[in-house]
Amino acid sequence: MKAVILVGGQGSRLRPITFDVPKAMVPLRNRPFMGYMVDFLKRGGLSGAVLSLGYLPDPIQSYFDAQDLDGFSMDYAVEDRPLGTAGGIKNTEAYLDGEASVVVNGDVLSGIDLGQAVAAHQATDALATITLTSVEDPTAYGLVEVDHDMLVHRFLEKPAADEVTTNLVNAGVYVLEPEVLGMIPAGREVSIEREIFPELQAAGRLRAHVSSSYWRDIGTPRSYLAASHDVLSGAVGAGEGFEYLQVDGSVRREKGVKILPPVSVAVGCVLGRSATVGGRSALGQDCVVGEGAVVEGSILFDGACIEPGAVVRGSIIGPHARVGENAIVRGLSVLGAGCVVGEGNVLDQGVRINPGVVLPPRSMSF
Ligand code: GTP
Predict the structure, then answer these.
(1) Residues of the chain with CATH 3.90.550.10
(2) How far apart are the first and last CA of the chain?
(3) CATH architecture, domain 245-359
(4) 170 CB less than 6 Å from ligand 1?
(5) Is any ligand 1 atom within 6 A of the Cβ of residue 12?
(6) Whose CA is nearest to atom 27 of ligand 1?
(7) Nearest one of 156, 40, 157, 48 to 106, comparing CA atoms
(8) What's the pLDDT tens digit per position in 6-34?
(9) What is the CATH number of domain 2-219?
(10) pLDDT tens, residue by residue, 163-188
(11) DSSP 3-state assignment of 332?
């Protein structure tokens, strides 16, 4: 059985990072997210996948072209305009040989047992089986109500707190019979969640399978950072030889540098005198952390530069972005590619700075 991986969306909730890097390729512990996805599908016993691409397809395709997938097949279906989640599945039809398939949202990091999900599906006459997972705060998700037989009987999209009737949400992992692809109109944008699943539910042919395994989507800065923390601390995605302290041999550490695991520091980074780096941080290739600067609980993309005395906490710093001397970036702030936070600025409370923007220095008052 093959998988369809939906990776064609714009990832607007993860902007400004996704202006330059597709969500599927954002790093977790310095490995593109798609690497974990393929491990997950292989573990589930699938023989290959078709990538349903649309927005920024080239970096994803180039990544896979350079990988040895050890017998796992990879095909590519690229849409020339957004077809939506169902349209994106329809667009892969030619590669599925008329067989049932597993469909995964390309932004889900999970330990779901796909073998169990497929077996649960095959034990019924359902045309589709949705995997459900429970979350603490379901209000940001699509809720799915099921009856005692696991037949889906209602969907609730992002309900208000007083409308919440279940904490089971759509985990973005489905098993679909080929007939479902026949229900998807071709040539226009179609949503599987809003159009196809309700139709299947009304026909009594949509079932659910509940998983209690690890699950997190990486679609927002908060959940991406949380997923990164989980991978760094080995809660998920830890391969053989996992270590809390992953510092490439090429990294230059000046005197007095403090490295606090779990941490991942990639090739070519330079850590200046008395800098502090760690507490579930990942630094991509060729990052520079200046003298006395602090990076904690954060993700730095390749080429990011944190100047002397600056502090970055619980934030995401895009490729080649620069945080000026003594500036503070914290509280889930997100900097786009190549932007500059001038000396002495304080960014807090989820501020997002678009790619290339330059914030002038702020004079410091003592
Ligand atoms: P947001 O814009 O932040 O909502 O993110 P998104 O574009 O990824 O949308 P969403 O999280 O709803 O999408 C779920 C999955 O479907 C993601 O893995 C997307 O890449 C994928 N997806 C969304 N829209 C399309 C589309 O039009 N075509 C294809 N091929 N995939 C899509």
Answers:
(1) 2-219
(2) 64
(3) 3 Solenoid (2.160)
(4) no
(5) yes
(6) 84
(7) 40
(8) 999 999 999 999 999 999 999 999 999 99
(9) 3.90.550.10
(10) 888 889 999 999 999 999 999 999 89
(11) coil
If you count them, how many residues does the chain have? 366
pLDDT, mean of residues 210-228:
96
DSSP, residue by residue, 18-69: GGTS-GGG-EETTEEHHHHHHHHHHHTT--EEEEEE-SSHHHHHHHHHT---
> From atom 26 of ligand 1, which residue's Cα is the shortest distance away?
84
Nearest C-alpha to atom 22 of ligand 1 is from which residue? 9
Of the residues 19, 40, 79, 105, which should be mutated to test ligand 1's pocket, given the most ligand atoms within 8 Å of the CB? Answer: 105
Q: Is the pLDDT of residue 159 over 90?
A: no
Write phi, then psi, for 357 (nearest 5 degrees): -70, 140
Tokens of 298: 């954060």
Give the pairing type, strands 263-265 and 245-247.
parallel
Burial class (CB within 10 angstroms; exposed 0-12, middle 13-18, buried 19+) of 67: middle
- Cα separation, 250 vs 19, whole angstroms: 30
Distances (CA, A) of 131 to 10, 195, 212, 223, 230: 23, 18, 10, 19, 22
Q: Whose CA is nearest to atom 14 of ligand 1?
A: 105
Q: Is 219's C-beta closer than 6 angstroms to any atom of ligand 1? A: yes
Q: Is the CB of 13 under 6 A from ligand 1?
A: yes
CATH 2.160.10.10 domain residues, the chain:
245-359
d(CA 178, CA 79): 20
> What 3-state DSSP class applies to 13?
helix
Q: Ligand 1 pocket, 26 CB below 6 A?
A: no
Cis peptide before 138 (omega within 30 of 0): no
Question: Which of 6, 25, 191, 352 best tests ligand 1's pocket when mutated (most atoms within 8 Å of CB)?
Answer: 6
Q: Tell me phi and psi for residue 265, to 5 degrees.
A: -125, 120
Ligand 1 nearest-atom number relative to CA 7: 20
φ, ψ at 225 (rounded to 5°):
-65, -40
**Neighbouring residues of 157: CB distance < 8 A, sequence distance ≥ 6:** 142, 143, 193, 194
